[in-house]
# Entry
Amino acid sequence: MARIDLHLHTRFSDGSLTPGEVVALAHQAGVTALAITDHDIVDGIPQAMEAAAKPGIEVIPGVELSSRFHERELHVLGYFFDWQDSTFRDHLAQQRRSRHVRNPQTIERLNALGLELSEEEVNAKAGSGSIGRPHVAQVLVDKGYVQDTREAFNRYLKEGAPAYVPRTLPDTRNVITWIRNAGGVPVLAHPAWTRCEGEPLYRLCACLKEAGLLGLEVFYSSHNRKQTSRYLELAKRLDLLVTGGSDFHGAANPTIQVGRGKGNLKVPDTLLEPLRQAASEICKETGRKSPNLLH
Ligand SMILES: [Zn+2]
Ligand SMILES: [Zn+2]
# Structure
């Protein structure tokens, strides 16, 4: 059985490699289909498609969106949507703008705490990609205020720390609707991040399913075997599609490899057809072209 990887980041968000470089690594790892799921942006998709044509790897349009559901930050992955849909792209642009509003406020708070750093220094760290807390953390390390980025997060930047600025996030149910309206399949990313298990997680997923959620990211680099089998069971119980991916970021997290996660990840290619089928049904509902006819 061949392997696929439906959760990959590139330089277009917080990954360190270009889409072409990620595709090359996927090819080396024996991946037959992949999705670039950058945060709030779809601009890496055409480059990945171009690079994947020669080795014959299928590129599925993908994205990852942050959202909030009853005080919890949840990430939603979207697959097989029309990535050129202008309404969907407007939503993404709005999400990227909300990040830009947050950074100056974080810097102001750090300045008020007596740490000297400027927006220019943070922007210089980020280059051309989307700018976020990891870049602020890096500047704090460079200036010797903290030993490493972990300390920067723990002392200043994580939720509840003195320089933490909550980001305005859309309701998860809205994000699900945006993806479906663009003809895509919404999937809850890395359920371990929800920090709930058992019945509370069941109820959370059931609520989201009612709002249109169609899948659960069961196979994931940091899920252990027990978690994987529990999430598989949960997906079965709620009749949700099963997906999986590495959440590869490149240099930002060198322990995770494309297609193989921390070494023992294998997302089977048999998960792809049910996902494609679900997208076809959404396309019928919304009067769009079938995903197989896109590109
Ligand atoms: Zn995520
Ligand atoms: Zn991710």
